[in-house]
Amino acid sequence: MSANSWRRIGEGDPARTVLAVDFDSTGRPEADFRRLAARLTPREIWQTAQPAEAENELLSAQDYLRRWRRLPEGPRHIDTVMGYCVGGVFAAALADEIASEQGERPALLLLDPEPVARLSLYRDFRKTVDTLTVVPEQERSDAVAEVLAVCEAAGEEDFTATAAQVVKVYETVAGTAFDLLGFDEETSEDLLGLFRSYVSYLHAARQLHPEEGWAAALALTSAHGGPGAVHAGAVRRFPVDTATLLDTPDVAEAVHRFLLERGA
User: Fold this and answer.
1) Contact 197/50 with Cβ under 8 angstroms?
2) Which residues pair with 218 in a beta bridge?
3) Whole-angstrom distance, CA of residue 223 vs CA of residue 236
4) Are 6 and 72 in contact (CB under 8 A)?
């Protein structure tokens, strides 16, 4: 395994390994797989890490899958692949890749699964820019309006160009914020790289078509989240918001039961 491909977030029996696909970052408002792992009985759980190259360029879906196929070292059996939000798109493709190698397809568990569309870029850009309150409101509003116009005008086949434009607008407005806050060049670049990496993640997921793979999955969704759950074989909805889904006891119990049924 490349030490930069996976991070262990739970320890247990390697013969019943669980993989978790998510874009994890410091300071994210939503609960992450570490919060979920802490609520489960001890299990061998590994979570994806993002490619360093994505901080500077838009990678393809195969770039990510090629990296994540380098599974954790040692004799192990991948029992289940979990995916949160857009991670569910990659999880389906990763399960297929693993099936060809170990001869058995891992079970697939989706948590608020969400396919990627052009307006996904706008939504996440707006959420991020809204936090840059040091920038004058009009400047932030203009940036959000510009990205909305870019996303609405682009065709579905223009996702790469649209993603690149969104990154450029973010670099401008965030650069203003970082200057006003007095951040040094290294800190500013780290934060810009984080956003570029997230856009690359969306860009890559947009190239995958998970609907067929999702048909065999169980989807656990928040009250108003998980638009991709309509494609899942079974769905269970919880009266919580997406930010707390992975830190909800009832959800952890549902995950625990799912893994028990798999023998994990």
Assistant:
1) yes
2) 109, 234
3) 10
4) yes
Task: Report whether 125 contacts 140 (CB < 8 A).
Answer: no
* pLDDT over 80 (residue 170): yes
Q: What is the per-residue pLDDT across 20-40, written as a single tens digit (0 to 9) for each?
A: 999 998 778 899 999 999 999
Number of helices (H) and strands (E), helices first, in the chain? Answer: 9, 7
- As a whole number of angstroms, the distance between CA 106 and CA 98 comes to 7
Asked if 56 and 193 touch (Cβ cutoff 8 Å), the reply is: yes
Tally of CB atoms within 10 A around 104: 11
Q: Which strands make up the sheet holding 17-21, listed edge to edge?
A: 6-10, 45-48, 17-21, 78-84, 107-111, 218-221, 234-237
Digit-coded pLDDT (tens) for 85-95? 999 999 999 99
Decide if pLDDT at 146 tops 90.
yes
Question: 């989807």: which residue's tokens?
Answer: 219
Single out the residue of 111, 114, 126, 125 nearest to residue 247, CA to CA. Answer: 111
Q: Under a CB-based contact definition with an 8 Å cutoff, are residues 29 and 54 in contact?
A: no
Q: Is 78 helix (H, G, I), strand (E, B) or coil?
A: strand
For 117-146, give the DSSP string: -HHHHHHHHHHHHTT-TTS-HHHHHHHHHH
- Judge if pTM exceeds 0.90: yes
Q: Of the candidates 8, 28, 30, which has an alpha carbon nearest to the alpha carbon of residue 19?
A: 8
Rounded to an integer, what distance in angstroms lies between the CA atom of residue 110 and that of residue 125? 24
Instruction: Give the model confidence (pLDDT) of 234-246 as tens digits.
Output: 999 999 999 999 9
Measured CA to CA, the distance from residue 194 to residue 26 in angstroms comes to 10
Look up residue 163 and give its two tokens: 């993603």
